[in-house]
Amino acid sequence: MNQPVASETYAAQVRRLADVSARVHAQREEAQSWHERQCVAADRAVAEAEEQVERAERELADARELQERVDAEAAHLWQLLRERLGSAGRRLTGAPAPTAGVDADPVLLLGQVRELLDRTRQPGELPGSVNPLLAACGVAGAVLAYALGAVARAAGVGYGGDLAVGMPVLALVVTLFGPLVGLVPAKMLADRRNAVLGPRPITVVLAAGLAATVLLLVLFR
Question: Mean per-residue pLDDT for 39-47?
Fold first, then answer.
């Protein structure tokens, strides 16, 4: 059989229940507030992370664009260098690989290279002082072509038959190409002097070769 509870004990239990309820409500409010703060912080962190990703993507795109421009400019400058070097430049292969550990601005470095190439001497025409050498090239080409023609004529005479008819014609054709043969050593001379084989040097070579060819044909016909 239940015993009646004294009013003072009941009142104390009610106060304790009220205190516990107040503490639970306060803790619930604190937990809710903490959760909201954590959500705000998480949202802020996600937003900052997304911004950093976007910035990194833009920087990567800019870096790739810069790399493409630098590679294209480096290849162009390398081609200019090969052209400036003439025959020596043709022995060069592709542009050298990038050097690791260089922190300088590549655009600035390429600009300095372009300025250096612009300051180098542009290939000019061979000076008039080499005209005797050019004439010698023409004469040498004529002599060489005439010698080959003479060998062809001798071969035709030696074998007889149809060769006796065809080889003299071939010999004459080869001999007439003598002035053009002299352009080969003349071009080599121009390349060694970092110059171009312009109209005047070509005229000197052809004129000397033609004169030598005519003289040879007249003397040894």
Answer: 91
